[in-house]
From TrEMBL:
This is Transglutaminase. It holds the Pfam family Transglut_core. InterPro entries: Papain-like_cys_pep_sf, Transglutaminase-like. Residues 205-229 are annotated as: Disordered. Residues 119-183 form the Transglutaminase-like domain.
Length: 229
């Protein structure tokens, strides 16, 4: 990781087991460039991450936030499922498919501040919304669930989409299991997990605060090349 226009101040591990680097912006700078590069070993485990790790107990992932809290539209969908089977991985796959059927993927239909209930009521959203809806409904069923930010490698290109989001639920006997609601699959060797949290705000790859700036913007570029071993 390298930084232009800023100074690395501190590194630590947060409550979600994410590695955090705190960067201050140098005085008078108009642009900060953060570059990360390296090699990542991946494998296909059918979305199964395994046992829980980190500083938060599992029950902390059963609590909804303003981003994920179900309203009338989300609860109407939940009424179609047998809550007594909530901890069954098959039901969670069915829940993922139902969300995808009712909330069409439309790029630009929502924004970073859109809540799960708002996207559900509108019937359109992006991967962030799909993940938030899944989290809200899984937690309503008392299933621990968390948000995952990362990357999905598209096989037909080197320059990738900026980022991707999916959800993980904790299933007895399996541990954490991933669900990519937008694509209707569990993560495989094409996925790279960057951070996890109880919603997007805790798992965003880059967050920041500004004072005095008139306006700001964020531009992200991502390139991935696959190597077989």
């Amino acid at each position: 990781m390298s930084v232009e226009g800023g100074t690395r101040q501190l590194e630590y591990e947060d409550q979600n087991h994410n590695h955090i680097t705190l960067v201050s912006v140098d005085e008078g700078v108009e642009q900060v460039v953060v570059s990360c590069e390296g090699e990542v070993d991946t494998a296909d485990y059918a979305g199964v991450i395994g046992k829980h790790a980190g500083h938060l107990p599992l029950w902390a992932f059963c609590t909804n936030s303003d981003k994920t809290r179900p309203g009338r539209a989300m609860k109407a969908l939940l009424g179609e499922f047998d809550s007594s089977k909530a901890r069954d991985v098959g039901l969670l796959h069915e829940l993922s498919a139902a969300i995808r059927d009712q909330v069409g993927y439309v790029k630009g239909a929502t924004h970073a501040t859109t809540s799960a209930e708002e996207a559900m009521a509108a019937g359109t959203g992006v991967c962030q919304d799909h993940a938030h809806i899944f989290l809200g409904l899984a937690r309503e069923l008392d299933v621990p669930a968390r948000y995952v930010s990362g990357y999905l490698m598209m096989n037909d290109r080197v320059d990738q989409e900026a980022s991707h989001a999916w959800a993980e639920a904790h299933v007895e006997g399996l541990g954490w299991v991933g669900f990519d609601i937008s694509n209707g699959i569990s993560p495989d060797e094409r996925y790279v997990r960057v951070a996890t949290g109880r919603d997007y705000r805790e798992a965003a790859p880059i967050t920041g605060r500004t004072q005095g700036a008139r306006d700001s913007g964020l531009e992200v570029r991502l390139s991935v090349e696959q190597q077989q071993q």
